[in-house]
Amino acid sequence: MTPSHQSSHINLQDFLVLLEEHHPFAKFLGIEVREIGFGSATLALPPNPDFQRLGGIIAGPMLMGLADLAMYAAVVGATGNQEAVTSSLTMNFLRKSPSGVILAHAKVLKTGRLCAGDVILTAEGSTEVIAHSISTWSLPRQANTR
Asked: How many angstroms separate the Cα of 75 from the Cα of each of 21, 47, 86?
């Protein structure tokens, strides 16, 4: 089944509460969760001069944090498992990132004991890919499952 045929295991408001209570770095980065669905999510990193490196491009660690959080949202949307953790993350920087809003479009490609997916980063208003991330996620057993 493709992600669009099922409803998300968490709604946007509940995900925002989850971030507030357990993932404060999202607030520090100012990341905005725009959409969360079953195995998909779109997040935005707002412009911030403190995130730029020499030459005015957004520093890689900021983009990696955005991609990781976007994939976390997609994984929680697909599985409902809020304890999911990144087991691997590969980031390919394809071109310089402009200083404006950066969007992360995450999609879960496989679920099971491990989840896998990818994230495409683009500048808002552009389809040109700035970076591409592939990650796998470990899904710890939740207390209510056997």
From this structure: 18, 26, 10
Per-residue pLDDT tens over the stretch 68-97: 999 999 999 999 999 999 999 999 999 999
Name 105's Cβ contacts closer than 8 Å, sequence gap at least 6: 40, 41, 42, 70, 119, 120, 121, 122
Distance separating alpha carbons of residues 5 and 3, to the nearest angstrom: 6
One-letter identity of residue 135: S
SS3 content of the chain, % helix, strand, coil (to 5): 30, 35, 35
Helices (H), 34-137: 60-79
Please identify which residue in the block is written with the tokens 């999202």: 26
**pTM to 2 decimals?**
0.91
Domain boundaries, the chain: 3-138
How is domain 3-138 classified at the CATH fold level?
Answer: Thiol Ester Dehydrase; Chain A (3.10.129)
Look over the chain and give the mean of its residue pLDDT values, rounded to a whole number: 92
CB within 8 Å of 50: residues ≥ 6 apart: none
